[in-house]
Specification:
7-stranded mixed sheet; globular; binds coenzyme A; membrane; about 45% helix; alpha+beta; GNAT_dom; single chain; transmembrane helix
Length: about 190
């Protein structure tokens, strides 16, 4: 259901805590199990129709390996065997009436930050949540704040005051990440 408006006094924007991160990891584990379900179906078909199991195994093995890898990796994160987040990364969340409706990761370096994976739930878009989320974190994070927006989101970033930045003016680490297939970085100073 799409919302036409929200009560902003019920909207909380804050840094994610350990419970938020565990919740995200649990969702990823459930997703990997859901994606494993088709392989059970395939096993049943193989059994039923006596299809050459080797052909099926070769066709689906990359998919299976990915699912199993995701399951093991996320379970390891949940149990504390692997870090919950990549180094120098933390998350901001937008919570509406107790439900997470948006989030973004921030990669913090000593003299700049990078905004990554900004996402607002479909039913809460165009209500100003994305704007509030970015404005709130921008007031607390190390500036300049860089973003490499998806093409359609460049105008959203412009409205927030981000401006295009030349490749030569980027921090070295970001230059390495830039490629032909991604849009240009923008910066908020
Ligand atoms: C881009 C995104 C984060 C914006 O969040 P939001 O809460 O909908 O944004 P706001 O309501 O604060 O939007 C403010 C303005 O930005 C612009 N804008 C927002 N989303 C836009 C989009 N997808 N395309 C073009 N302009 C957009 C609009 O001008 C909007 O003003 P309007 O509501 O008067 O039209 C959200 O659409 C989203 O999660 N998209 C999918 C993932 C994505 O593209 N992430 C961005 C990576 S940088």
């Amino acid at each position: 259901m799409s919302h036409s408006q929200i009560n902003y006094s019920n909207l909380i924007i804050r840094r994610a805590n350990i419970q938020d991160l565990n919740q995200t990891i649990k969702k990823a584990i459930i997703n990997s199990l859901i994606f494993l379900a088709p392989s059970i179906l395939i096993a049943l078909i193989v059994f039923q129709y006596e299809i050459e199991p080797l052909i099926i195994a070769l066709t689906f093995s990359p998919y299976l390996i990915l699912c199993i890898f995701a399951f093991i990796y996320n379970s390891g994160r949940l149990l504390g065997f692997f870090p919950k987040q990549p180094k120098n990364t933390h998350t901001w969340v937008a919570i509406y009436m107790g439900k997470r409706i948006g989030s973004t990761d921030i990669n913090s370096q000593s003299n700049y930050s990078v905004l990554e994976t900004l996402y607002i739930n479909r039913s809460f878009r165009s209500l100003g949540v994305g704007t509030l989320l970015v404005q709130t974190l921008a007031s607390e994070e190390i500036k300049p704040l860089y973003v490499q927006p998806e093409r359609h989101a460049a105008s959203f970033c412009e409205k927030l005051g981000f401006v295009p930045v030349n490749q030569t003016d980027l921090p070295t680490q970001l230059k390495e990440r830039n490629s032909l297939f991604t849009s240009k970085y923008m910066v908020l100073r």
